[in-house]
Structures are given as C-alpha cells and as structure tokens.
Amino acid sequence: MNKIFKVATLLVILATVSSFSEEKDVKFSVRAGFSLYDYPSGERGTDKYISRSRGFNGGFVISRQIANSISLVQEIGFLYRKLLFMDLKDIEVWVNEFAISLPLMLQFRPVEGTPFYWAAGIQIDPLTASEMRTKTDYEEKTENIRHRRIPIDFGIPLGFGYLITPNFGIDLRTVIDVTSPYKNDKDAGWSQYGFGLNYYF
Fold it and tell me: What is the SS3 assignment for 120?
C-alpha cells in the first residue's frame, strides 16, 4: 500500500471522528479483542495444510443512538493476524498481517434498555503490512507478500454483546470475508471468530 493511500485513509478517519464528535448524543468506548482465523480455499489438498490461527484487534468506538433501540456504531482501530499456512516436518510457513480496521455496524436491542444487543454491518481493513515467514531446518527468512489482489479486505461483521455494567461489556463476533486477498486463491478468504472486551466512558 503506497504512501498516498495511507494518508488518504488517515484523513478519512480524522474527518469521520470530527463529524461524529460534534453530535451531542455520541458515546465513546474502547474495545480489545482476540480472534481465531481460518483461510478455507475449498480445496482439500490445500486446506489440510492450513491451520486455524490467531489474531488481536482493538481501538476506539463511537456510537450514536438513531432510534429507541438502534445505534450506529463505528470502530477505528487496528488488527494483527498470524496465519499458519503450512506446518510440516521440515518447513513452517506463516503469514503476518497488520491493518487498520474500520467496522461500521448497527446495534439492535430487542427490548429497549436490555443489556443484550445484536450487531451487523460492514468492515473495511486497509493493510499496512503483509509478510510471509518461512522457516526450515537450515534457514529462516521473511519477505513482503507482493501477490496480494488488493490492499484492502472487505467483510461483514455479525455478533452480539452483553453489558455487564454501564461501563463494561463483552461481545462475540464473526467477520465473513467477501474478498479474495491473493491472486492464486480466487475463492479463498479470511474467516474470523472472536470475542471482545468493551469499556464505556
């Protein structure tokens, strides 16, 4: 991802924060999450070498109530994922990726005032780094991945949460990837499952 794209993404983030912060009914919080990742390609011969791997994410959350039981929620944060592609006797292949994470979701409470809520929306993750690490008995090397289809992942986040106290909550979330990140795996995409901890100001 080139410098111009990074600057443009940062300007969009700053503009969004400024526009939301002008509203009187805005609430702020922070979120930290842990996720498991799959990378199913649909081919058994390939998928048997790919293991479920892990990642972390976190950032700031801005929410605005737009109806009695519906809120518009935007997160501005980062994510890191480490995917084990191959773990054989003589070789290990890992992919490490860092990205800015921009989920935009609607939260719905089935009953006004209930601590439970459902959430769904869209998510855009512009990459800041993507690298592959190869380790054998003889050497270990790391190189940037250059066969990325696009430097942005698009997904559909779905989940639900529970407010334990007015200032603390937990959530479960999955993100369905709708993009194919690599040119040689046109039908593959990330599958993310995780949980998060939320602190509300």
Answer: strand
pLDDT digits (tens, 9 = 90+) for 146-162: 666 677 888 899 999 99
- As a whole number of angstroms, the distance between CA 68 and CA 78 comes to 30
In this prediction the pTM is 0.77
Q: Sign of the C-alpha dihedral, residues 5, 177, 34, 36?
A: negative
Rounded-to-integer distance, Cα 97 and Cα 55, Å: 9
Q: Is residue 93 part of a domain?
A: no
144 inside domain: no
CATH code (residue 18): 2.40.160.20
